[in-house]
Amino acid sequence: MGFEVDLPVDEEFDDIMRERLIEPVFQPVVSLVDQRPVGYEAFARGPEGRLRSPAALFAAATEAGRAAELDELCAVLASRAFHDAGMRELALFINFNPDTLSNETEDGVTPAYAEVMGDSNVVVEITEKAVTRRPAGLLDAVGDARKRTARIALDDIGVDPASLAAMPLINPDVIKLDRTIIQNDAADSHVINAVLEDALLRGAQIVAEGVERHEHVDVARSLGATLGQGWLFGRPGPLPTAIRPSDQLLARVGPRPAQRTTPYDVLARTEPVSPTAAAELDAMSAQIENQATQAKDAAILVVNIGDLRYMAVDSLITYAYLNSRGVEVFLVGHGVPFTPGGRVRGIPLAEDDPLRQERTTLLVGSSYGSGVFARRQPGSDAFVAGTCYEWDRVVEATLPLVSRVEQI
Predict the structure, then answer these.
(1) Of the residues 84, 275, 286, 408, which has the maximum number of CB atoms within 10 A of its CB?
(2) Strand order from edge to edge, sheet including 383-388
(3) Enclosing H/E stretch for 127
């Protein structure tokens, strides 16, 4: 039996929503080459008083159970202000709530977001946490946003190890380095190298956030950034009445092909396969998991065991260790719970799911990938199996599995 929860009433917040008393403010994102704007990021302010700051405003929305509604209102008001100011040559960077962005509708994204994307040169900003927390729906929404010509930016890179592993799945056009990377003289070289490799591999652009002093510009350039954002270039405020846009164009990375098939079908098209006994397949899969324990940066490990009864006794201990090293683990199989243990994410399979006849172990890092894939031979305990060490192909095979994950 369902039940309703009475949320506390905040009359001041209710007035703000009813009267649409949100003030959009904008901060420039500039080219580090010519120091002129390529676009503006939108922020929201409430009216003067207790709910003026974004933190207080969104905290009140969460308390009232209206965070998604506030997020849509902010996006629409910012888009309309941007349009009215005649900024069509510039990009509008908007932070999208992943829960709102991926709400299921016939058109993919919510109507409010569809309006925003259809009327502006939009860059959708999402955080890496959204990818690991709610990949199902979000990846579809990202694909839909790209169909509407929006670009995708992955924000807060460097804050959480999962950010590096999330990059191949999102395939962003823009990578935003967190301010702590720019302002910290001892920035993690693994993070920087992984971001640079990913950007160079796919043609993405890097934005350095938190540029507050001239020396930060030099740091940003040394880290491969071509765009910058921070108080040195302007604080959040009204849009200028006159502006000279940068000659630098924003990158546009081609989306990954959406796969509605299985990892075996994806990888067997190009990789050789051969008959393999179950014990040999277990050893091959264990080798991939061992590679995960030696990963030097964050990664994603997806393991399809077909059925829970095939999971090794000590697997959860191994996965907990991998979690402690920044590896996000997804476990697939019939009978697998949504929360198998610790931070491991479960992907339960229906009894008639074709994935029950497959075994897959896929490891995806920021610039490397490896995997074992197999399909059970009819009427036998033996498999036909193969391996793949091509990063792009392993990512392609990982997406059909990760996109099944439900929100916890």
Answers:
(1) 286
(2) 274-276, 383-388, 369-376, 358-365, 299-307, 327-334, 345-348
(3) strand 122-127
**Residue 386 in tokens:** 């193969």
Q: Which of 393, 398, 373 is nearest to 383 (CA)?
A: 373
3-state SS record for 302-317: EEEEEEHHHCCCCHHH
Which region holds residue 395: left if phi is over 0, alpha if psi is between -120 and 50, else beta? alpha
| Percent of the chain's residues with pLDDT above 90 | 50
Q: Where in the chain is the domain with CATH 3.20.20.450?
A: 11-229
d(C-alpha 266, C-alpha 59), whole Å: 43
3-state SS assignment for residue 341:
strand
DSSP class per residue in 79-114:
HHHHHHTT-TTSEEEEEPPHHHHT--BTTBS-HHHH
Residue bearing tokens 């207790």: 50
Work out the pLDDT band at 187, boundaries 50, 70, 90.
Answer: low
Instruction: Among 3.30.565.10, 3.20.20.450, 1.10.443.10, 3.30.950.10, name the CATH number for the domain at 11-229.
Output: 3.20.20.450
The full 3-state SS of 24-66, as one line of letters, equals: EEEEEEEECCCCCEEEEEEEEECCCCCCCCHHHHHHHHHHCCC
pLDDT computed for residue 136 by the predictor: 54
d(CA 165, CA 329) in angstroms, rounded, equals 11
Name which CATH class applies to 263-402: alpha beta
Q: Could you give the CA distance from residue 26 to residue 154 in angstroms, rounded to a whole number?
A: 19
User: What is the rounded distance in angstroms from the CA atom of residue 190 to the CA atom of residue 74?
Assistant: 36
Q: Is residue 152 packed enough to be buried (19+ CB in 10 Å), middle (13-18) or exposed (0-12)?
A: buried
- Inform me whether the pLDDT recorded for 19 exceeds 80: yes
Cα atoms in the 13 Å half-sphere on the side-chain side of 2: 1
Select the highest-mean-pLDDT range: 2-6, 152-156, 356-360: 356-360
Quote the pTM value: 0.79
48, with CB counted inside 10 A (0-12, 13-18, 19+), is exposed
Residue 105 has pLDDT above 90, yes or no: no
| pLDDT at res. 101 | 64
